[in-house]
Predict the structure.
Amino acid sequence: MGKCAFPIIFTGNQAKGNTMMTPRLDPIMPFEFSAGDPEEMVAAMLRIRRDYGIRRFAFTGPGIGVRIAGYPSDDAYREIAADILLAREAARNDGIEIGWWCAPTLKAGNSPYQHLVDIGGGASPISSCPLDPGFAGDLARRVALVADRARPFMSLLEDDFQLSNHPGFVLGCACPLHLARFALLAGREYSREELQTAFSDPERFNPELRRLWAGMARETMTGLAGRIRAAVDRVAPKTRLCLCQPGGADWDGDLTGAVARAFAGPDTRPAVRIFGAQYSSPDAGRAIPGVLGHTLYSARHLPADFELFHETDT
């Protein structure tokens, strides 16, 4: 049987106004096609199609192994495209659609570019800053490369597409690039230490400064999404891009709607896989009501033209 990258499926949902319509169950199954022999993986897909009716798969890659193996080259993405093409041809008579789950995005390993820096000063060893044009260009080019070569029915951008939910991070990126950008927005320079006090000290908390900082995070990710959309539009304008809503989306200026809209561009329908599961936490049971509450809130308040998917941890 083929391996899923994570125990998650996606189920389509549509909203009309503020009233949720009956869900249309058409899951997208994450599928680690590269985990075994191609013929065995195709056979596994066909068994899943026959036994469970699941017809849509999202091949995962390049995979979290890059955090150990190192920042991937374009060849890793060419291999993803080749896998999609091979599987689509082998399953062409079985009603199967194949997409791509781009995972990871920012957490793609030790890149030569500016890494994310926590408000406390610690640099992430695996996450790169979207304000570095070198990294942003790499990611946009690679998403477009897969779209051009493989024409996935949808490309889903992993939920590390944000600034505030990386290991050790809680308040976005405070690298030199972001501090310089914030100085322009705020009208003067702030050190990390000043911002940490303004955001974390109950006696000196500055809500207006915090909102400005969160808005900057949202604009950072929206800008990167727009750059990726533009690159894809040059080669495959009908390819849809879906945001896997990060668990830290609210910390980054409630980025979900703006980023999904930027991913869609003017010619495709916006899509969001809403965050809806709890992982690797000792209090996962107690967290379920809050997680599901956020899921339902997101489904109700995202724009009516968005296609919504729910993350279901089996």
In short: Confidence is low (pLDDT under 50) at residues 1-11, 13-19. Residues 140 and 227 are 6 Å apart (CA to CA).
